[in-house]
Amino acid sequence: MSITPEQQAQIDEFVEQRRRYNAWREARAMRQRRNGLLERTDWTQTEDCPLPPDEKQAWAEYRQALREYPDQEGFPDIPLPTPPDDLDDPRPTMNGAIDGYIDSEGNNL
């Protein structure tokens, strides 16, 4: 049994729609991840932030790179920007542990 040209066109259209949907989902997931990183680093830009000005600026640059991330060529198949590597969130969490250094995958270290 062979496929008619019309059937092949329908199959091709379905495959293309599925590809676009999957790309949309992946981009959405990366935007959500990026938004989470921005939210988790909001503290670095507050007036009462305990960081020295140069470290605060490093975080501001990282956050700007996060904002620009979806506009980069190849998004969402490119790595997230790398956070400042020598900065930790000095604020204690509820259990007294230090919580705040975030790697490029959004994981606490």
Explain what this protein looks like in three dimensions:
The protein is mostly helical and 109 residues long. The protein has one domain. Helix content is 48%, strand content 0%. It contains 2 helices and no strands. The termini are far apart. The relative contact order is 0.13. Mean pLDDT is 85; it is low at 92-99.
Output the keywords.
109 residues; mainly alpha; 2 helices; rod-shaped
The number of strands is 0
Point out poorly predicted stretches.
Answer: 92-99
Helix content: 40-55%
Structural category is mainly alpha
Q: What is the percentage of strand-forming residues? A: under 5%
How would you sum up the major sheet? Answer: none
From N to C, what is the helix and strand string?
HH
Rounded Rg: 21 Å
- How many DSSP helices? 2
Average pLDDT rating:
85
Shape: rod-shaped
Q: What count of domains describes the coordinates? A: 1
Distance between the termini: 58 Å
